[in-house]
Every structure is written in structure tokens, then in C-alpha cells.
Amino acid sequence: MNNWPISGRDVHFLGGIHAINLPSSNQVKIYPSTIDGKSAVITIPTYQKLYEGLAHVGLSELVGTEFYTDVSHFDGSAPSEWRAHTAYKSKAWSHTEAIWHWSHVSNQGHKIKDAFLWDIAKRISHQIGALNGSFKVLSHRYRKQLMGRCVREKIEIGRKFEDGFSKEIYNSFQYFLFDACTLRDYLSEFIFHFILTDDEKLDVQHMNMTSRIFKKYFKDKSQPTLFRANFKNACDKNGWLNVLGSYRDLVTHACPMSMAGGRLWIRVESVTLNEGKLLPKIVAPIPLNPEAIKLERNTFESFDKFDQKLKEFFGQSNDEKQSHDILTYSKTVMM
Fold this sequence. Notes:
Strand order of the largest sheet: 4-3-2-1-5-6
Number of strands: 11
Largest sheet: 6 strands, antiparallel
Distance between the termini: 34 Å
Oligomer: single chain
Order of helices and strands: EEEEHEHEHHEHHHHHEEEHHEH
Number of helices: 12
Mean pLDDT: 91
């Protein structure tokens, strides 16, 4: 352990589960305790084997890691270094690299005295960082919900509940949606100015809304490159960028996310560790069909039957098959 880096690591997993590896230690403690009240601790042979060791015991649904490499990180005078885990092109830290790359593009814009390139690349770099921060906050909200429930009572798999921490999860998800859609529009603005040709733009000088750029230049046209084809597919009816926008629009134009499709209840599920022990985790559901819910509410169809609305709001009958988990969905956005 003489060559062990002086770096503490706090690994986030889906559902609020987390693992702590203190500086210069080969011990990793997993939180919370298992259903039967046991603490899970693993030993890793080298600093680099942390994630492999956690996957070996059954924890592979990574969200991100906080690194503590300085005294200021521990005493709270500076934030820890957060890195979201992604699988994009097999690069675990692709979001962090993206922040660096867009900063380089901005610097290049400064060198060639292109004010717009300098500005938009700097905005994109900033917004990737903002989105990473929102993702970290959301993961911490899950942790507070899970650990608070474990402290309060003996946790039961399958139980549904709502408390003060639950609202924090849904509110944090709304911030995540706005940050994600802001980044989406900045990138679309970049595509308009630097990917589309002047002939395609037909004398249009500026455009910065994803939906308008998609409808005018991508929707009904074949695309000459794989990048442009991927952007078109992402913005299409069932594309992930379009779905992302539908969730944001549901909040903006219809209702808070915690009220989408009736009252939404947090539920307790579990992860099975390699020795058969059950580790509790939480799921915060959101409906699969945000666009349909927005239309239903805006046409007042959902308000025709008062008794049915009351039953939906006060019942605990979430349809698990018709919902996403917030943190799981947010991770797909981050990929």
C-alpha cells in the first residue's frame, strides 16, 4: 500500500446505494446495511481495482464518483471532484473530457478572434458542467431518501411511501431537465452555425431552438453524415432528445413532475449481493408517456371525473410497468 494514492472515493450507485473508500485504505464500506442489518465491507488489492471489486459483489449500476484528494475536500472549504460515469465510446469519464474539449474549442475561437465560436463553445462547456452538477445533486437526493428511511424504521422491500425527502428528488429532477434541455439547445445552435452549410440555411442568420432546427433542416430530409443522421433520429418522435423535451414541457406547461399521472410514491426495491444478501435501494417513478399526460391535462380530459382524480392522487397503486425510475432515466440521458 506504499504506492496507494492519497485519494478518498465516494462511489454513487442507482437507488441511493453508495460505497466509501477512505484515503490510503484497501477497505470499502457499502451503504446502507443489508436488509438483515449487516454491514457490507470489501477489501480491494489495488487502488485501481475499486470498481471491479464492487462489481464482483453485485454493484455495477454506477452513477458517478466523488474524489477527495485535498484537505479542503474533507473540511468542506472546497467541493470534491465529481465525475459522472458513462459508457460513451467506452470512456468512463467522457463528460469531464467533453468539458475540456469544448474549452479547447473556445480557446481556439479566441485565438482566431471568432467571437461567436469563443462564446458558444464556452457556453457548452459551462452547461456540461452544470448538467453534471445537477446529476450529482439528484444522486445525493436519492441517498438522503434511502438513508433517512433506513434510520427511521426497519426497511421493507416493496413498501411505498412519501416524505420530505421525496419532494427533493422530484424537484431536483426538474432542475436536471432544464439543465439538460439548455445544453441540448446550445448544441443545436452550434449545429446550425457550424454543421449546416450556408446553402442549406437559405439566408437564415440565426436559430437556437432544437425543435425549429430539426423541423426545418432535418425532419423530412436525408442526412449526408452519420452525425447528422444520429441527431435527426434523436430529435424524431421517439428519439431520446424529443422525449427529454417532453418531460421538460410537461413540467413547464402542465404540472410538477411529482403530480404527473397522479400522485407518485417512492418504493423500496433491492439489489442482491453475491452472497445472497439483499441491499435496499429506492425507486422514484415517473410516467413513460409525458407528452400524452401533458395533452390530457391541457385539454382538461383528466379533470372530467373528480372521484377518479381523487383515487389516483390518494391511492398507492403506481403501475410499475408504466414508469421509469428518475435516476435510471437520468443516467440514460447522461450516456
